[in-house]
Design a protein that fits this description.
Layout (H helix, E strand, L loop, with lengths): L4 E3 L2 E2 L7 E2 L11 E5 L6 H5 L10 E5 L25 H18 L6 E6 L1 H12 L4 E7 L11 H7 L2 E7 L7 H10 L5 E7 L8 H19 L1
Parallel strand pairs: 4-5, 4-6, 6-7, 7-8, 8-9
Antiparallel strand pairs: 1-2, 3-5
Length: 225
Amino acid sequence: MGENTVSDGVPRIDDEAVQWSAPPEERAGRPLLVLLHGYGSHEGDLFALAPHLPKEFVVAAVRAPLTPPFPAPGWSWFPIEGLQARDARAITASATVLLDWLDRSVDPATPVGLLGFSQGAVIGLQALRLRPERIGFVVALAGFVADGTLPTDAALAARRPPVFWGRGSRDEVIPADRIAHSTEWLPGFVDLSGRVYPGLTHSVSQDELDDVVVFLRARLAESAR
């Protein structure tokens, strides 16, 4: 393993590419919401949502560590082609890289939530499984839960952190078997809420964003108790 890699040869998160909604001097004492983009995208994509999210959160959008095969643009969290396509080991490796960035960049006392779209949602859920004591909640949009079991799944089931899972009824990108697996798996391990949005494809609608904001405000209310 090289000094610039963390897990299974996956490069570290590029600190210089992270987009923050607040400078360092304005982050202390505030909860952090980390945005995780999808396949072939970049850190600026979901960061466009920041102005629409509760202002109490510091928002950080990170860039996935891998590049998809030419001619696909942008960045990716794990391969979707070849023998490694949607491989649980590859998903765990990139989730470990994300957690390494979190350990290096964020005060351990800072409450952290993850919001991911598509591949980013998969990574967010896997990071939650790996470190249920560190990740307070996950918003998973148009994603799924990786296959397999992890040694930390029992701790996750004991904590049952809040997860919002949103997806479109006409999303033809996420395979039906991934949806079926997630539908069966999530209720046993997390406090699950969410919605299937009629007519929505592999994207985010205004109705979904409105529901995400309600979910995030509920997390803020819980932390204020």
